[in-house]
Design brief:
Helix content is 62%, strand content 9%. The protein starts with a helix and ends in a 9-residue tail after the last strand. α3 packs antiparallel against α4 (66-83) and α10 runs antiparallel to α11. A five-stranded mixed beta sheet has the order 1-2-3-5-4, with helices on one face. A hairpin with a 5-residue loop joins β2 and β3. It folds into two domains: 2-172, no CATH class; 267-400, Heat Shock Protein 90 (2-Layer Sandwich), CATH 3.30.565. It is rod-shaped, with a radius of gyration of 44 Å. The chain has 400 residues and is α+β, with helices and mostly antiparallel strands.
Length: 400
């Protein structure tokens, strides 16, 4: 009922307030004529009607000036009580509406202060100058009950509205948070795909470029070797296409989701990766220290991509003829250390620095994404070194 009344008030507030004031004013005449059984009226009807009319007129401003409206209603009701009228809901109606509006639009302390003040004034006036034959319980409990009721309803309505607003605000915040989280995941996925594409394209294009140059140089004098390298070039491009297809597999349409994807590369394919660089004139020595342990899927792919990018950088920038890849499985800590170094021979002046190039940035982001660490830089004895430490899955103790 309160919600319906608020909806009606919200649609046409001025008309609703005027109708309410007229209805309460109409109740003032019978309210001013009420007496105790067997008693004659001690005062004429018109002063009570006049004072109640002033309170009803003040209700027209209860939305914009709730404190002033409540103060006027309290003064008029106190005067009615002092004149000797019996305080019923018919005469206290304007004050009840004013206190409800006050509790609805102000804080609890203000509403309680006005309500208690009104009760004290009404009860005091009724006790001092009220009808002598009126029962004491009516003088004490009647005004208190009639004034506490609208104040309580107004406070409850205000708190309920504040609670609903808080719930709506939390829902809107949660919706914005979900949207931001979704955008963050999309951005992270795009960055991951961009890193994979960079690694795949850079690696295979470098090899293909070197092999194509070798074919061009050897074709006049060594056609047999040129034909062999051309065949290897075809294999390089085919491998590039397979890895590109696997990398962008998440971007396929829903009709293609049931097709089997290419296996994700990992440390198990390092020998194949090292052999592919032989066609580019780079000899890669692969060594493993310690007992090999399985990595998580993300860390396994990260390790492979770091080695692939590091060897590609050696081919592109270091002009070295050899490189070393070393895997160290430490028995003391659950981690594998991947080290890629070149011998530093004939290293150009404009070689990479530890913080330049998208490839180095991608390696750093890959290592951090799986909880690992990486450092890169020139060695004192010459050459470039990439050292990545990637975590191994923590083995949970078996319950006995």
């Amino acid at each position: 009922m309160i919600d319906n009344l608020q909806g009606l008030q919200g649609s046409r507030p001025r008309a609703t307030d005027a109708a309410l004031a007229l209805a309460l004013f109409a109740c003032s005449l019978p309210g001013s004529l009420i007496t105790l059984p067997g008693s004659e009226p001690v005062v004429s009807w018109w002063p009570g009607v006049l004072l109640t009319g002033v309170s009803c007129a003040a209700l027209l401003w209860h939305r914009s000036h709730p404190r002033g409206t409540a103060a006027v209603a309290i003064v008029c009701a106190t005067a009615v009580s002092a004149l000797g009228y019996i305080l019923t809901v018919l005469l206290l109606g304007p004050l009840m509406v004013a206190l409800h509006s006050l509790a609805l639009r102000t804080d609890r302390r203000t509403a309680n202060t006005f309500t208690i003040t009104g009760i004290v004034l009404l009860v005091s006036a009724a006790l001092v100058v009220g009808p002598r034959d009126e029962p004491l319980i009516l003088k004490l409990l009647g005004p208190a009950a009639w004034l506490l009721l609208p104040t309580s309803l107004g406070t409850v309505t205000r708190l309920r509205g504040a609670y609903l607003e808080a719930v709506q605000a939390r829902a809107e915040h949660a919706e914005r948070t979900r949207e931001e989280e979704a955008r963050h995941r999309v951005t992270a996925e795009r960055m991951r795909i961009a890193r994979d594409l960079h690694d795949v394209v850079a690696h295979h294009l470098v090899l293909a470029n070197i092999q194509a140059g070798a074919v061009t140089r050897m074709l006049p004098d060594k056609p047999d070797e040129a034909e062999k390298i051309a065949a290897e070039l075809s294999g390089t491009t085919s491998s590039a296409l397979r890895e590109l297809k696997s990398t962008v597999g998440l971007l396929r349409d829903s009709d293609d989701r049931d097709r089997p994807a290419e296996p994700t590369p990992g440390l198990a394919r390092l020998p194949e990766l090292a052999a592919s660089f032989q066609h580019a004139g780079l000899t890669v020595a692969l060594t493993v220290e310690g007992e090999p342990k399985p990595l998580s899927a993300g860390a396994d792919l990260t390790a492979y991509r770091i080695v692939q990018e590091a060897l590609t950088n050696v081919t592109k920038h270091a002009a070295s003829r050899s490189a070393k890849v070393r895997l160290v499985y430490s028995p003391d800590q659950p981690a594998v250390t991947v080290t890629v170094t070149d011998d530093g021979s004939a290293r150009p002046v404009n070689s990479l620095t530890p913080h330049s190039g998208y490839g180095l940035i991608g390696m750093r982001e890959r290592a951090h994404s799986v909880g690992g660490r990486i450092r890169m830089g020139h060695r004192a004895e010459g050459g470039f070194e990439v050292v990545a430490e990637l975590p191994l899955p923590v083995e949970e103790p078996v319950a006995t």
